[in-house]
Amino acid sequence: MQFQRFGNKVIVRIDRGEEIVSSLQSVCEKEGIALASVSAIGAVNNFTVGVFSPSTKIYKSNRFEGDFEIVSLTGTVTTKEGIPYIHLHMSAGDGEGRVFGGHLNQAFVSATCEMVIDISDGTVERQFSEEIGLNLFKF
């Protein structure tokens, strides 16, 4: 992985074999990023995404292997207990044009991943909501 900061933006290249979520976590820690929006494109060959059920408060995870193009990867960086908290969603399409997606748990790059981190001033902390079952923005 390589990255360069330009004011309030960080441009990141995540390389073949590297994992996207942990790479973003590393950049945020190195650059002291506490609040940002994230977008990316690229290709992956192994990824796990989930869908949250509000009624059961459980994530259902789905793992995919093969050749996939990232159709959309978007999310936020906030903090939880002062540590960068990564929340991403990803959709990826296969060779037949089928698209699969959800909350991104893990994704391994097969060719490259081009990411833009758009940093905002300030901090938004996360706090677990017993009612919802998720870590929500705390203002």
Number of helices: 1
Give the total of beta strands.
Answer: 8
- SSE order, one letter for each helix or strand: EEHEEEEEE
Which of globular, elongated, flat, extended, rod-shaped describes the shape?
A: flat
Radius of gyration: 15 Å
Q: Please give the alpha-carbon distance between the first and last residues.
A: 33 Å
Beta-strand content bin: over 45%
Q: Give the low-confidence spans.
A: none
Helix content: under 10%
Major sheet summary line: 6 strands, antiparallel
SS-derived structural category: mainly beta
**Mean pLDDT over the residues:** 98
Describe the structure.
The protein is mostly beta strands and 139 residues long. 9% of the residues lie in helices and 68% in strands. The protein has one helix at 20-31, and strands spanning 2-6, 9-15, 36-53, 58-80, 83-93, 99-119, 125-129, 134-138. Strands 1, 2, 3, 4, 5 and 6 form a six-stranded antiparallel β-sheet that branches. A two-stranded antiparallel ribbon has the order 7-8. The mean pLDDT is 98.
Q: What order do the helices and strands come in, and which of them pair?
A:
Blueprint: E1 2-6, E2 9-15, H1 20-31, E3 36-53, E4 58-80, E5 83-93, E6 99-119, E7 125-129, E8 134-138
Antiparallel strand pairs: 1-2, 2-6, 3-4, 3-6, 4-5, 5-6, 7-8
Summed up:
By secondary structure, the protein is mainly β.
Keywords:
single chain; 139 residues; mainly beta; 6-stranded antiparallel sheet; two-stranded antiparallel sheet; 1 helix; flat
